[in-house]
Amino acid sequence: MQGNAPAECALGAAYFHGQGVPQNIAKTAYWYGKAAAQGDAYAENHLAFLYITGQGVPQDDARAASWTAKAAAQGFALAEDNLGFLYQNGQGVPQDYARAARWYAKAAAQGNARAESNLGVLYQEGQGVPQDDARAAHWYAKAAAQGNANGECDLGALYQRGEGVPQDYARAAGWYAKAAAQGNVLAEAKLGALYQRGLGVPQDDTQAAYWLRRAAGQGDGDAEFQLGTLYSDGRGVAQNDARAAYWIRRAAAQGDAESEALLGAFYQYGRGVPRDYRRAAFWYRRAARKGDVHAEVHLGALYRFGFGVPRNYAKAAFWYRAAALQGSRHAAAVLGRLYERGRGVPQDYRKAAYWYRRAAEQGDADSEVKLGFFFLDGQGVPQDYAAAYKWFILAKAHANPRSREYRLARRAMRKLAARMTPAQMARAQAAADRWWHEHNGQP
């Protein structure tokens, strides 16, 4: 004899919420199971939830998917959305973005806001459907119009980037604010970033700190890092190195390379934490292994001078090279010096000249002086007075007039002038002017 499915379903819900009866999830599963056996879509969907979460029944994704599919087949919108999610993530069923999109579309056609938002994600990513930012914006807008926080946040992101909709920072901020008011952590972080930069809203570090603190309190790594920088600089909050270190450490614990590098610097210089070169090296190493150029430079320096690690020029050269290959001017200059002196690498004037040139091309005055002398003496490069004079001109232009580099360049130019022909001098000046124009947009 069959029971009354709606009554069984209601009794399952009562046990789940502890309304009128003591909360008992096992009994929830029992009564949902009885109702589901009679084809009650609500019970099928909610029994699937219990299998997904392992409440009152053993956790079983396959059974969850089976019950969700039964409810979805009856046109139960919530189940259609849930089945789309299972196919999207390969949970209890083989991952299949096309099927995910079809089930989301069925639920979205019934006005299910979460399905509308999820379908927008698939269009934005081009998963199971052709990539189409305009379609993504369409579905996000429908979800957002119903107050779906994810739809609001994702629509804000499209307005911020100008993808699928005209770029509009004010609209981005408006949608982020709606989602943030519902506690959406990503929206809180993004709204804080807009206040920090004054995009779509008046620049306001206090508001930035408020929203970033809300997101950071929910564990958002980007917000933790940005809040740490606000405390470090005293923007929007009272300057406090200890608080800065606290938030940056939290972000670093999530594996964010930029946070790891900055935490290394805090330990190196004793900002907000006791100075500790060993810990500085630890955090720099973690960030450097992820390719953070600042960490590579600083870790190279620690190995070069033996702070927190045994002095090791070979390891210093390794990390300086990694940073130089990413465009670090300082690393290229130091690597040139290591090759010139044969420290950690075989002495090689040609390679020294190569790395000095890379730093010099970025306006490093010391490297420009070094390269000038290399051309003057024919060391690592063919002797070329005009090239030497060019680099001395540039070094003098880039260096502080009271610096050693400025004095060396000026002295070398005076000596060279006595050896050069007017044609060589003119060629050197023209080359320097051309370099200056290419790098600064003016003669």
Commentary on this structure:
With 443 residues, the chain is an all-alpha fold. Among the domains are: 1-110, Tetratricopeptide repeat domain (Serine Threonine Protein Phosphatase 5, Tetratricopeptide repeat, Alpha Horseshoe); 386-443, no CATH class. Helix content is 72%, strand content 0%. It is built from 24 helices and no strands. It has helices at residues 5-17, 25-37, 41-53, 61-73, 77-89, 97-109, 113-125, 133-145, 149-161, 169-181, 185-197, 205-217, 221-233, 241-253, 257-269, 277-288, 293-305, 313-324, 329-341, 349-360, 365-377, 385-398, 404-417, 422-440. The longest helix is centred in the C-terminal third of the chain and has 19 residues, at 422-440. The chain is elongated.
SSE order and pairing:
Elements: H1 5-17, H2 25-37, H3 41-53, H4 61-73, H5 77-89, H6 97-109, H7 113-125, H8 133-145, H9 149-161, H10 169-181, H11 185-197, H12 205-217, H13 221-233, H14 241-253, H15 257-269, H16 277-288, H17 293-305, H18 313-324, H19 329-341, H20 349-360, H21 365-377, H22 385-398, H23 404-417, H24 422-440
Helix pairs in contact: 1-2, 2-3, 3-4, 4-5, 5-6, 6-7, 7-8, 8-9, 9-10, 10-11, 11-12, 12-13, 13-14, 14-15, 15-16, 16-17, 17-18, 18-19, 19-20, 20-21, 21-22, 21-23, 22-23, 22-24
